[in-house]
């Protein structure tokens, strides 16, 4: 696959979806050739301008897709965000509203005409072709992907959504042709309370006569617990689930513990990711190592 290219999007609109979600529409000449993968949870990487200088130091990408930043310069802060809606030359991105973090601050203050550099989209969701029963579990950060995924489902699919949000005002309405059931968990996760996602997933009765798929996207440790349940307790093959940590609670503390980690441990983790071994086996070892050191 060719390396994903960097493109420049222009802010065309900003609107509130709920009190906790702001939607930014990007388009303009720089996105006229943007090609969506069509997959409901496809994400792009955004490169945010320095809040003080406005500078955006971008990576150089070689033919193998490897990044290299100019020496002596601070790389632009970058984060991944799901494309909520894709139209020719335009995309909608939904940002969780909070009082910390560069991405949320940018989205809340973005003005029509502002520009931002993005990397082309890449998908994660990969349900089996015969899937007819789907469980989607997320916190607020996963709602954009959930909304788009359910919109794309066929009428014969039974889909349950478990979504934890700060309160009822953060609930969203999803349009779908599928048979949809939504369970809202108020006051859970999202930095406002302990996550309830792992327990809620365990409580779901998975039908034995269906072709099933589980997709979960939320805080890292909540996702880790669900993945353990599916992979190690239920012994599901990786083709039947997708588990992606979208963010890390108490990130500053996590970063401090990571920086204090023995360099040999970091080297071991890097070697595991680059080993070429089965991805799920590597993830098992990496997560076990991280947990050993409180990460």
UniProtKB/TrEMBL annotation:
Origin superkingdom: Bacteria
GO terms for MF: oxidoreductase activity
UniProt-listed SUPFAM superfamilies: Riboflavin synthase domain-like
Similarity-based family: Belongs to the SIP oxidoreductase family.
Protein name: Siderophore-interacting protein
Organism listed in the record: Paradevosia tibetensis
